[in-house]
C-alpha cells in the first residue's frame, strides 16, 4: 500500500495535508479543471496596467515593505500553493472571503478557477487598490478591530481565509488573546454555509512562535487542525473534549 493511502486511512487530516505538501505525495482523487502554473496566471493579468503600477511603486530592495508584492512571479507562486493546499483547484465552485486580501493574488487565482470571491481590507495603500481594480476583484473597505463585528458581507461563504495576519496586534502589546479570537471566530461562524471552514495563517511573533501554548489549546478546543502557522476551523465541527 502506498504511503499516501496509509496516511489517508489514518483519518488524520493534518498529517495527510502536511505529507502532501512536504513530501510531494500525489493528490488522491484530484482531477484539476485547469493546468495551473504561475506563468499562465500572470498572463491572465493586464500586463500593461501592471507595468504602470510597477513604474509608480517599485523600489529597489523593498525588504518587508508592501512594494515586495510587485515581485509577481514569487507571490503568484506562493498563492498558487495556498490554493492547492486548500484544494480549491478542483471540485465545486465556492464562495470565498479573503480578509486582508492585500494585492489580491490569492483571489485572482480563485476567480480564474471560477470561484466567487470577495476581499476585505483597509484602504490605506494605493498600490493594493490599483492591483485589486486591475484584477477585477470586489473589495470591501474595513479595518478589523478586536471585539467589533464585521459589516454585512452579503451571502454566506464556503471558505473564509486570513493569510499573514496582522490585524491581531501582530508584534505589539495589544496582541490578541483567546477572548479576542473567540469573538472574531464567533462573528465569522454564521457567515459560513453548512460545512464551511475558516483558514488562518499567522505571522511569527517576537518570540519566534506563531502562537503560544494558550492559543494552541484554545484553537484545539474548537476542533481546529493546526499545521505549523496555519489553523483551520470548521465551526460546525464538534470541539475536542
- Give the rounded overall mean pLDDT: 88
Strand content: 15-25%
Large-scale geometry? globular
Could you give the distance between the termini?
Answer: 33 Å
Task: Please outline the major beta sheet.
Answer: 7 strands, mixed
Task: Give start-end ranges of low-pLDDT stretches.
Answer: 1-16, 18-33
How many distinct beta strands?
7
Structural class: alpha/beta
Number of helices: 9
Task: Give the topology string: H per helix, E per strand.
Answer: HHHHHEHEHEEHEHEE
Gyration radius, rounded? 18 Å
Written account of the structure:
The protein has a domain of 30 residues. The chain contains nine helices and seven strands, in the order H-H-H-H-H-E-H-E-H-E-E-H-E-H-E-E. The chain has 241 residues and is α/β, with parallel strands linked by helices. It has a seven-stranded mixed sheet with strand order 3-2-1-4-5-7-6, sandwiched between helices. A hairpin with a 2-residue loop joins strand 6 and strand 7.
Quick overview:
This protein has helices at 3-10, 13-23, 38-43, 47-57, 72-85, 105-112, 126-134, 178-188, 213-221; strands spanning 95-99, 116-121, 139-141, 157-165, 192-202, 225-227, 230-233.
Strand and helix map with partners:
Blueprint: H1 3-10, H2 13-23, H3 38-43, H4 47-57, H5 72-85, E1 95-99, H6 105-112, E2 116-121, H7 126-134, E3 139-141, E4 157-165, H8 178-188, E5 192-202, H9 213-221, E6 225-227, E7 230-233
Parallel strand pairs: 1-2, 1-4, 2-3, 4-5
Antiparallel strand pairs: 5-7, 6-7
Helix pairs in contact: 1-2, 4-7, 5-6
Amino acid at each position: 500500500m502506498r504511503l499516501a493511502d496509509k496516511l489517508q486511512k489514518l483519518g488524520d487530516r493534518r498529517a495527510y495535508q502536511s505529507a502532501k505538501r512536504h513530501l510531494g505525495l500525489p493528490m488522491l482523487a484530484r482531477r484539476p479543471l485547469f493546468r495551473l502554473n504561475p506563468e499562465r496566471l500572470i498572463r491572465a493579468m493586464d500586463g500593461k496596467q501592471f507595468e504602470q503600477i510597477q513604474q509608480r511603486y517599485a523600489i529597489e530592495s523593498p525588504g518587508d515593505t508592501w512594494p515586495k508584492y510587485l515581485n509577481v512571479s514569487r507571490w503568484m507562486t506562493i498563492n498558487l500553493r495556498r490554493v492547492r493546499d486548500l484544494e480549491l483547484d478542483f471540485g465545486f465552485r465556492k464562495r470565498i472571503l479573503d480578509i486582508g486580501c492585500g494585492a489580491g493574488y490569492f483571489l485572482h487565482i480563485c476567480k480564474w478557477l471560477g470561484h466567487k470571491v470577495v476581499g476585505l481590507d483597509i484602504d490605506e495603500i494605493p498600490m493594493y487598490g490599483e492591483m485589486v481594480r486591475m484584477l477585477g476583484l470586489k473589495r470591501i473597505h474595513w479595518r478589523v478591530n478586536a471585539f467589533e463585528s464585521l459589516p454585512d458581507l452579503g451571502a454566506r461563504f464556503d471558505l473564509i481565509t486570513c493569510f499573514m495576519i496582522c490585524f491581531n496586534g501582530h508584534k505589539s502589546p495589544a496582541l490578541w488573546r483567546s477572548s479576542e479570537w473567540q469573538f472574531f471566530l464567533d462573528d465569522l461562524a454564521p457567515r459560513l454555509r453548512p460545512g464551511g471552514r475558516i483558514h488562518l495563517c499567522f505571522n511569527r511573533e517576537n518570540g519566534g512562535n506563531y502562537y503560544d501554548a494558550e492559543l494552541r489549546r484554545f484553537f484545539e478546543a474548537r476542533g481546529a487542525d493546526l499545521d505549523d502557522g496555519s489553523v483551520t476551523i470548521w465551526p460546525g465541527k464538534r470541539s475536542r473534549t
